[in-house]
Amino acid sequence: MGLVSMLVFINKLEIFVDVVNYQMIRDISPSPESKPLKTQLSRKLSLKMKTTNNTTVAAWSSASILAKFFLLSLVVLGIPAAALAQTTTQVISTSYAFAALMSDGSVLAWGDSGQGGSINGVSGLDSGVTKIFATNKAFAALKDDGSVITWGDTDHAGDSSSVANSLASGVMEIASTERAFAALKSDGSVVTWGNAGYGGDASAVANSLASGVTKIHANGSAFVALKSDGSVVTWGSSF
Question: What sections of the sequence does the record tag as coiled-coil (predicted)?
């Protein structure tokens, strides 16, 4: 088994994408004896593109399926390699998909379409996005007008239609569990959606979340809201 590393070098006039297969030693710690070996894939599919960006270096190193999936989509499928020649300001992932926020406020997505890897049919992601959030299988994009756009698996909060009116404006920050999102609004209220068992339903504490919330925190299956009076409100799974 090998440890797959991908190095993306963005230089003033070109992008060089390469894949290096490092021999994995038992403790997965670096060793002077383990020399990088370029794979056949690397030699055949190295990619160069023109760009005018300043020098940037980004590196991913992982034996996980995510890294391999990123490799396949970027190097083999070429999605969205050309678009990534722009300046990328954020990259975030679900279990099997990636979403990238570009400097022009647009969003790119690739990977498993059922987990947010496709934005076909999703409107509003071509400009104005300031930050992207994720559950295990869905994304939420916060826009500069305070609105929120979601896509991905519906059981993991990819469908926010039930709270669309509340997410049309005023959202400042978003927190997520594995299957739900919670949005903090400028008036101190909280909006939730997604799997009820993971914090997507806050109806039991709705009155406490109607105002005065200053920050939301989350673990895998529950949320905690900190209020301006120092009190705390919790909801989601008790386990």
Answer: none
- Determine how many CB atoms are found less than 10 A away from the CB of residue 223: 27
Alpha helices in the chain, H assignment, sequence order:
40-45, 65-71
Question: Can you give the residue ranges of every domain in the chain?
Answer: 1-62
State whether the Cα torsion 71-73-45-65 is positive or negative. positive
Q: Which residue has the tokens 């050309």?
A: 82
Residue at 201: amino acid letter: D
**Dihedral of the alpha carbons of 92, 94, 99, 101, in degrees to the nearest 10:** -30
Q: What is the pLDDT of residues 184-225, one digit of tens each?
A: 999 999 999 999 999 999 999 999 999 999 999 999 999 999
Q: Which tokens sit at 66?
A: 């995510």
Rounded to 10 degrees, the C-alpha dihedral 153/134/66/51 comes to 110
Backbone angles phi, psi at 78, to 5 degrees: 75, 30
CA 159 and chain centroid, separation: 16
On whether the CB atoms of residues 139 and 132 are closer than 8 A, the answer is: yes
Checking 157-165 for CB contacts under 8 A at 24+ apart, the result is 157/181, 157/193, 157/194, 157/195, 157/200, 158/116, 159/193, 160/193, 162/193, 163/191, 163/192, 163/193
Question: Are 159 and 182 within 8 A, CB to CB?
Answer: no
Contact assessment for residue 207 and residue 190, using Cβ atoms and an 8 Å cutoff: no
Residue type at position 183: A
